[in-house]
Amino acid sequence: MSEIIYYAIGDVHGELDKLDRLLDIIRGDAYECGGAYKIVFLGDLIDRGDESRSVVARAMAAVASGEAVALKGNHEALMLHAYKNKESIGIYHWAENGGDQTIACYKRVNGDTADWRDAIDIGHLDFIRALPVTFQDEARKLVFVHAGIDPKLFPACTDEIRMWTRSEKFFDPGRWPKRPELEGILVVHGHTPTHDMKPHANPRRINVDTGACFGGPLTCAVLAPGQVPRFLRAG
After folding, report:
1. Residues sharing a CB contact under 8 Å with residue 126, sequence separation 6 or more, in sequence order
2. C or N: which end of the chain has fewer Cβ atoms within 10 Å?
């Protein structure tokens, strides 16, 4: 695993065209590099954009082929909660955060069912339910996660932290405690759109959510053994 080139993709949010372009760029880059590679979807495949169903299908195919791993983001968690629980607050909270576009996308393909749940592909639900919340290359001390970690607790962070955190104590590595568990790790995440629609990187943390669903590019971090991180984008 340690010799693999990782391509960590930020929040897609239903932006299929940008994803397809970025996947083409990634595959071309990996071919030129000539080594083994792994795509890491950092979560939030769905919501806000118009093509969440197709984005999920792309991720499923890449995972099934062994080309990629995919992580669960807070938007996948919102969808699963709304699907499982029929109280109004869950569906309202999801809908207000882009779930309406996801429901419309699935209904457009599978039919305008009376209950939106009947329009969601069962295979897609099974895929989303099974998504892990983190992926690590321990040899290279790379930690891939949707939102971030709690530096005081890592690696014993809760799923909620990994999918939802926007803590300033995480964002500022200068505030991380001196713990052996944090020594040398690099956390690669999305979840919080960067204000300038460019990836943000420092020696401890990389954020590749560049606001693809807000007009920014879809970005991935390229992490090759022994090299400084670089970035690929699709606008």
Report:
1. none
2. N
Dihedral in degrees, nearest 10, Cα atoms 147, 151, 152, 156: 60
For every residue of 143-158, DSSP letters joined together read EEESS---TTTTTS--
- In angstroms, rounded to a whole number, what is the distance separating the alpha carbons of residues 147 and 37? 23
For domain 5-234, the CATH superfamily is Metallo-dependent phosphatases (3.60.21.10)
How many CB atoms lie under 10 A from the CB of residue 34? 8
Q: Dihedral sign, CA of 108, 111, 112, 117? A: negative
Tokens 């053994």 found at: 225
Using the structure block, give the residue that is written with the tokens 């792309």. Answer: 58
pTM value is 0.96
Q: What is the DSSP secondary structure assignment for residue 98, as one 8-state letter? A: I
Tokens of 30: 């990996």
